[in-house]
Write a structure and sequence with these properties.
Number of helices: 18
Shape: elongated
Order of helices and strands: EHEHEHEHEHEHHHHHHHHHHHHH
Distance between the termini: 29 Å
Oligomer: single chain
Radius of gyration: 26 Å
Helix content: 40-55%
Strand order of the largest sheet: 1-4
Length: 369
């Protein structure tokens, strides 16, 4: 996904990345001290704290707080990046915002000063295609940052996982969309310029977000090529992801695919999980699920064509309509386990003109929907 991001929050001067993958400090506060103090205030693990908590943190560490600052902290919140700026801590070049990096590290370290580098590298894979050193050892947050910078010091596109999670995290009403102010909070967290999320929409679902400049996909991307309904793909993933950890187990993958209208065998699911192990470090995330969905998706126009072809086959007497008895045979052919009463109920629902037969338009509605 093509994702633009600025080098610093738009409300503060852009900081020049530290050279050589090192974290530099202009003040007296170390990164380790700021990390610990910030995590202590941010008990919800959102990597933002209130301006009140930031003032308290500033007093404890001896850095500039909200009062008298030239920086405007929007929504009464301060991000970890903004706290670093206030403390004079400058990050090296990173592929994603330091806010995303600290979020990954806290997830694997449980907000402690050290975490496992291999687990951190795997978590970073959910955010960007960044090959962080996966060595199985304990490292400090600063060493984790150095490992990320060594993997890539240039901005990289965020993965679809991040956009999907944004709807859940910043969409406070839980209706599966973002309002403009919620989108603004997300963009600020990932240092995305406001001009790249400009929109006249009042509610933005997954498909709407992918039309914005910040998240625009290349024309040859499978999502663009297939015109797959991404709102439905996101819903299917979230419904199937029972523990909401952003990755799917084999059981959850099967549930997701069935919700997306597929009926995979256990062997097919096993192959998909093996692919995830080989290509994605064992994590079957939303990006992987979208890849599978795109490969198996049949565009609506093609579905209509196939439905019409099927109609001509099942219209055995060439009458231009299908009877209830023929519909029962069709349901059996398609593997639908429906009782005679259920088939009759379906037939009556589709028979919109009430003539006791299904014409081609009514039949197409059955198969395409």
């Amino acid at each position: 996904m093509a994702l633009s991001r600025s080098s610093a929050a738009d409300s503060s001067p852009a900081a020049t990345p530290a050279a050589g993958g090192e974290v530099t400090t202009a003040g007296s506060v170390s990164l380790a001290d700021l990390f610990s103090a910030f995590a202590a205030k941010d008990t919800a693990n959102y990597n933002t704290i209130s301006t009140k908590d930031f003032n308290e943190l500033s007093a404890e560490l001896g850095v500039e707080g909200v009062e008298g600052s030239v920086v405007e902290y929007a929504d009464g919140l301060v991000t970890f990046k903004e706290a670093c700026d206030a403390a004079g801590i400058v990050m090296p070049g990173l592929p994603i915002s330091i806010n995303g990096v600290v979020e990954c590290f806290r997830k694997v370290s449980d907000s402690k000063p050290t975490g496992n580098l291999a687990a951190f590298a795997q978590k970073m894979k959910l955010y960007a295609e960044c090959d962080v050193n996966p060595e199985d050892k304990e490292v400090s947050f600063e060493d984790a940052i150095k490992a990320v910078s060594a993997a890539s010091a240039e901005p990289m596109p965020l993965k679809l996982n991040v956009l999907k999670d944004a709807i859940r995290r910043w969409g406070k009403d839980g209706n599966g969309y973002l309002k403009p102010d919620e989108l603004g909070q997300f963009a600020r967290f990932y240092e995305i310029p406001p001009k790249d999320i400009k929109t006249d929409l009042e509610e933005l679902m997954m498909a709407d977000l992918l039309l914005l400049k910040a998240f625009e996909l290349p024309k040859d991307h499978p999502i663009v090529q297939t015109a797959i309904p991404m709102n439905d793909v996101r819903k299917a993933f979230d419904w199937g992801d029972a523990d909401h950890n952003g990755v799917l187990s084999a059981q959850e993958l099967g549930r997701c695919l069935r919700l997306a209208g597929q009926n995979p065998s256990q062997s097919e699911i096993k192959k998909m999980m093996q692919m995830a192990q080989e290509e994605r470090g064992g994590e079957f995330d939303f990006d992987a699920f979208t890849d599978i969905a795109c490969k198996s998706y049949i565009p609506v126009a093609d579905q209509v064509t196939r439905a019409k072809e099927a109609f001509s086959v099942f219209d055995e007497d060439g009458s231009g309509s299908i009877s209830l008895a023929e519909l029962r045979r069709i349901m059996t052919t398609y593997g639908e386990d429906m009782s005679p009463e259920e088939v009759k109920e379906l037939f009556d629902t589709l028979d919109t003109d009430g003539d006791g037969k299904l014409n081609i338009d009514e039949f197409v509605e059955l198969l395409v929907s």
